[in-house]
SDR family NAD(P)-dependent oxidoreductase (Azospirillum griseum), 253 residues
Amino acid sequence: MKIQGQAAIVTGGGSGLGAATARALAAAGAKVAVFDVNAQAAQAVAADIGGVAVVCDVTDPAGATTAIATARAAHGAARVLVNCAGIGVAKRILGRDGPQPLEDFARVVQVNLIGSFNMLRLASADMATLDPLEDGERGVVVSTASVAAFEGQVGQAAYAASKGGIAALTLPAARELAQFGIRVLAVAPGLFLTPMMHNLPEEVQASLGASIPFPKRLGKPEEFADLVAHCVANPALNGEVIRLDGALRLPPR
């Protein structure tokens, strides 16, 4: 799909991988709606790229429906959805204080997995109503998985499970939505220089970067965004989870 002129939604677009993706799509000529729970962050990115900021909790069915309607009113029905909204909680299943609180596990799965599915189901309903483009294509959905989906570390049970769910969702969703000309993909990034990483001491960042075979550095959000843009542009990509990790394989700890 040619990105130029298409309406796009990026969740978690107020910071990190989402902000970089919003900027890349806008630079390629898309009309971008920046979805985020943080209104100020969404507005800052949207103002910078000439897009529209929409406050959205991806876990709220009614709120997400309203947010998509707001984006539709501004730019038309989106042909592109990129799910970048996500959270992480580092807790052991059995810690010093006993079993991990169930609500902690549930919250991560609710935001990362169920939130991504919520947006996929709602955005694809809009996409299915659009006229087909070249090759009968109507839309593209790219979600954010993680290498933790495959090599989750100690303390990452909730995060790994949520990202593993996104990885497992990708192929059946692509198969089901193929009849409507909607492609579904996921990108599984490794260690990237996101706001969470920025908060770590420089020596810790350097150590993490050195653990990556090549290039020996943390990934740049722009590199993630470039891959998402390629996923949108390349019609042969569908039903796949693409690792973006510099050949990194996470150790147990």
The longest strand covers residues 182-189. The CA atoms of residues 227 and 234 lie 10 Å apart. The mean pLDDT is 96. Strands lie at 7-11, 31-36, 52-55, 80-83, 94-95, 98-99, 139-144, 182-189, 241-244.
